[in-house]
Specification:
Strands 1-2-3 form a three-stranded mixed β-sheet, covered by helices on one side. The chain contains ten helices and six strands; from the N terminus they run H-H-H-H-H-H-H-E-E-H-E-H-E-E-H-E. Helix 1 runs antiparallel to helix 4 and helix 4 runs antiparallel to helix 5. The longest helix is centred in the first third of the chain and has 31 residues. The chain has two domains: about 200 residues, Cation efflux protein transmembrane domain (Alpha-lytic protease prodomain-like, Up-down Bundle), CATH 1.20.1510.10; about 150 residues, Alpha-Beta Plaits, CATH 3.30.70.1350. It has about 375 residues and is of the alpha/beta class.
Length: about 375
Amino acid sequence: MDREKTIVRTSIIGIAANLLLAAFKAVIGFASGSVAIITDAVNNITDGLSSVITIIGAKYAGKKPDKEHPLGHGRAEYISAAVISVLVLYAGVTSLVESVKKIINPGEISYDYIQIVILIAAVFVKVFLGTYFSHIGKKVNSDSLVDSGKDAIGDVFISSAAILAAIIYIIKGFSIEGYVGVLIGVFIIKAGVGMLKHTMDDIIGHRPDSELTRQIKESVCEFEGVYGVYDMILHNYGPDKYMGSIHVEIDASKNADEIDTLSRRITHTIYAKYGVVIEAVGVYARDDIHPEVSEMRGKVSDIVFSHDNVLQMHGFRVDFDNKLIMADIIIDFAAPDREGLYTHIIEDIAEAYPGYTPKIVLDIDASDL
């Protein structure tokens, strides 16, 4: 609730500031006939609307879980961030079109120094807004606020370009209004595309923060008897809302009661430290009792890692009764032919152990290895 209130309060400040700036710039733009300043005013209106959408997204995302959405509504913030990105793109395209028209059909322009002073003051307001939004956005992990902060900082350059065009016209009597407007439009479009790509990555799903996954793995490995942590999958349900699962490698001699106790301690610890819900802890049993298993593990490991682009092997196990060699391997997504490499590894293991059938899983790990 505190996070939601912070986002709403910050957004209201943004709405008020942007509407005030838009009003001043619109008056100056129409009075002077400057398409660059009018475009800048439209951009401020878009920024104000973005803040409105941020409030709506934060309010909806803050709703309690219900029957239809048992994991909450946190992903709504990603939708609001996407809408803001589209609005920025729209503002950029509109600016570009109007500026091209100004180049084709230039009109009369008239500036005075009072207007320039007001525009310079507006730049300082945008610097404050950009810094403030970015700081609060990072503090409460709000993509919408961070995007608004980036947009505001971008507006500083846009407004500065419009001011420069006005000064050049006053001093030299030469108008570069249309060309500056085109530059502004391209700048806004580029920013909008970047924001939309970042938001779409959140919606589609991307690799979790590497620092978070590293810390979780280190914390789990601190438990006595845990040899390694693998197969980490974290599902994101909004900013700072993660649920997932992991596999731990432990001694094969542990019984069900010991495994259950360890699993509960891991889930409680990770939630207390990082606010991440580990809903399942799988187990890989490590056999260090039989020397032949240790020998086979070493030899199979050498075979696997003799190939380029192999990142990890884990979960090694030998079923002597059914003549099976089991393990999971992770191959870099950058490998030219992951499936071909996977097949080649299986063939090499089968050749080294002709009496056994390799059951090798081509695995993935959502964390950085």
